[in-house]
Design a protein that fits this description.
- By secondary structure, the chain is of the alpha+beta class.
- It folds into 2 domains: about 100 residues, no CATH class; about 80 residues, no CATH class.
- It has 9 helices and 4 strands; from the N terminus they run ααααααααββββα.
- Strands 1, 2, 3 and 4 form a 4-stranded antiparallel sheet that branches.
- The chain is globular.
- This is Transposase.
- InterPro entries: Transposase_11, Transposase_InsH_N.
- It comes from Lachnospira intestinalis.
Length: about 210
């Protein structure tokens, strides 16, 4: 027996395959403000440094691929060469560790770059005709906290940055409960795209933030 030689390389396969959902989304992102905060010269530090843009896209991939946590993301990067290539890593290049991604999350949280970029992309989508804005709806999504759940009696009453217990009906009418946060979003009904959002502890009702959203 002998191994048949591959007809095309992985790079050739990548060039001819159709765009994935992740690649389509990444091609739309406006990186202008991101590159102002993280100029190119600061993207890599040392021989094993990673581009800040790559790390940012990697965190987006975690959401698009519906991976549960950073650990699952790291494992997927190691086992999926096509995903690595989509994010700009070489097929044989080492991918970021959990510690590297968590440090980058901490770095991002100290800036307002994500909110400002979101606003720019909403304006871009309106100019392209993707967002109509005539009719809008308010919806909420649960965001589970990475902190260990605590009893309600131990949750600070006057601390709006602390996660809390919340509940809502899912699309099937089932009541779900979680400890964490809630994203309240104003959504364009024409495209289904969000045009405004507010993140609160999970116990805050939609009606309490509706006026601010609008």
């Amino acid at each position: 027996m002998y191994r048949q030689q591959s007809l095309i390389t992985l790079d050739q396969f990548y060039e001819i395959k159709p765009l994935t959902k992740l690649e389509s989304i990444l091609s739309f992102i406006d990186y202008l403000l991101f590159e102002e905060v993280f100029p190119y010269d600061s993207h890599k530090r040392g021989p094993k440094g990673y581009s800040k843009k790559q790390l940012f896209n990697t965190l987006i991939a975690m959401q698009i691929e519906q991976l549960s946590d950073i650990k699952a993301l790291v494992m997927r990067l190691k086992s999926d060469p096509v995903l690595r290539r989509s994010l700009g890593y070489d097929y044989i290049e080492n991918t970021p560790s959990s510690a590297t991604l968590n440090r980058f999350i901490t770095l991002l949280s100290g800036t307002d770059i994500l909110e400002r970029t979101f606003r720019r992309m909403v304006c871009k989508a309106r100019k392209l005709g993707l967002i109509d804005g005539t009719n809008v709806a308010i919806d909420a999504s649960k965001l589970t906290s990475y902190e260990h759940a605590v009893p309600k009696s131990k949750i600070p009453i006057d601390d709006s940055t602390f996660p809390n217990w919340g509940g809502k009906l899912d699309t099937n009418g089932n009541f779900i409960k979680w400890f964490g946060w809630k994203m309240h979003a104003l959504v364009d009904t024409y495209s289904g795209l969000p045009i405004s959002y507010i993140i609160t502890p999970a116990n805050i009702a939609d009606v309490d933030v509706a006026e601010k959203l609008i």
